[in-house]
Amino acid sequence: MEVVGASDAPVAANVTAPAATAASLSSPHLLDLESLSPHEIRLILDQARAFKDVLARTIKKIPTLRGKTVVSIFYENSTRTRTSFELAAKRLSADVINFSVATSSVHKGESLYDTARTIEAMGADFMVIRHPASGAPHLLARKVRAGVINAGDGTHEHPTQGLLDAFTILERCGRIEGLKVAIVGDILHSRVARSNLHALKRLGADVVFVGPRTLVPPAFERLGARVCHDLVEGIRGADVINLLRIQLERMEKNFFPSIREYKLLYGLTSERLRAASPDVIVMHPGPINRGVEIDQDVADGPHSVIQQQVTNGIAVRMAVLYLLAGVREGRARPAMPG
Known about the structure:
The protein is an alpha/beta fold.
């Protein structure tokens, strides 16, 4: 395990965390967005807005979680999410431990439960877990006292990605209610698509899933999404287009003839982008397969907010850690000082 000290780093003097509201979340864990109320989602987004201001300061650290320990347990590879959580925890002055599954007792047959109990015995206050099995964070939350944050479980959910996407939309568009959001690509295997759907529908957006029939089955309509199998029609008039990569690592069979054919039918080009709203924003959770789901000139063009999503991820994850800490301490966070 790699221990990254944060508490002893420079912290702005006499700085307290800016709180957006006196309200609190109902659970000490963040396991999914499906179980969150619209009020709780707005609470996190409001708090993230306050932390975005903190990140713009010369000294970006506040002592809110000084003395707390955040452990990241990633059973799958990750760059953006793992680094984003680590930075968020450091900005709050927590100590961070990166648990390396590749060199751990997991390869000797140790169970997730025993691994988590061992980490908890070392004094972990929060466990940020990514696991290939859907429901693994939920199981963990029933077994440990530490706060559990789901950083992606199988094809189920990726709640903080859904939150940062909603935050980015709100920041760029000024609202979510009434917007048309087209989520394009491998919906079947995407935990990001599910988390986005739950968050955006609760906040009043019209969500359309777009992709091949094999990757966007009609069953998704039961979750509240509209389904479309034609790219241009699906993004017509869209205010937001969120592109998903093809997750070949999760596919046990061929869902389309070839990558080339997928690009020809569903790759977002500048020409196809004209079907959307003139002020459309283009999003992608990463990593990007340039030239497959998105052309390079679109990924780097004026409609792209992909880098803004990465920046916003830190503020959103700071907000999650901050609010969950308040729940664990048994009190609501104080109102923002005037």
